[in-house]
Queue: 2 jobs
Job 1
Amino acid sequence: MSLISVEIKEDENKCKGLFFRGKINSYYIEGKKIVQAFEINLLKKMSCKGCDQCYGFWDYYNTCGTEDIDITEIKHGKIYSPKFIADIHDWETNIVDEWHYELEEILENKS
Ligand SMILES: [Zn+2]
């Protein structure tokens, strides 16, 4: 019998989550319209490089479209992270059947 030692580096397997910077663009075209556009931009350095969990978020967005995630409550310049919210569990298997995401504001450490 041989023993193989496998070193598991915890940080590499742990999802850091996804982080976005909120941005509100406002402009107007005189005599015609006033526009306020909300956007959240992925902060690549801060975010997970990609895992099943994060992929789930993008997949959810691909499937549900933009209607299910409201970003009109964001504030310009703030950082947000999507939080997984389980809505309905299968009563037999306890596997999550329905879920959604909510944006959570992240307090920035300015030191
Ligand atoms: Zn991840």
Job 2
Amino acid sequence: MSILKVIEYGNPILRQKSKEVIKVSKKIKNLVMDMLDTMYHYNGVGLAAPQVGENLRIFVIDVSDPSGPINPLVFINPKIIKKSGAINSYEGCLSFPKAYTNVRRYKNVMIKALDINGRSFIKEAKDGELLVRAIQHEFDHLEGKLFIDHCRNRFEANQVLAKYNLPPIEEDELVSEDFLEEEIIEYEKAHPEEVEKRNKEIEELETRD
Ligand SMILES: [Zn+2]
């Protein structure tokens, strides 16, 4: 088991599309174990193989409470088979040290993948919970997409990136998500208290060391 080096934003590896895993071999299992070690070491909620320099369709997630027992989830050759609803989600990424920004995501997803033993499984995540957001975030990494490509406000995203000396957003990578944006705006109009709560949480995250 070892802690791998996490590649940072600006490295072209993060923009490459990852390849399917042909066989869940011993080598792949070792990579998955190292990815889990790396994710826990850096207190991440998820980590995708390209982030450790392997353009393979693998990611790991653990959304359990950090004070409780671990609950690692492994997704190999994942496919999102259903998605619906819209939420605003503020996200960060181990490849973007300290930078958080508001992004658009689906509220519910269903995903099909192989586990570490090469067995197929289906997982459903709902209501905008952390797992829903993590699945979309990590899945994106396999497509060469990054959370900032879903930013709700380019100005805000660029400000955050500049603050941490990270390269600015690549305009041609931005995802057009007007229907998600419309749904989010409607929802936030009806729930201003949630917007306020989230803004406070972002502020706390940014001042944390
Ligand atoms: Zn990430």
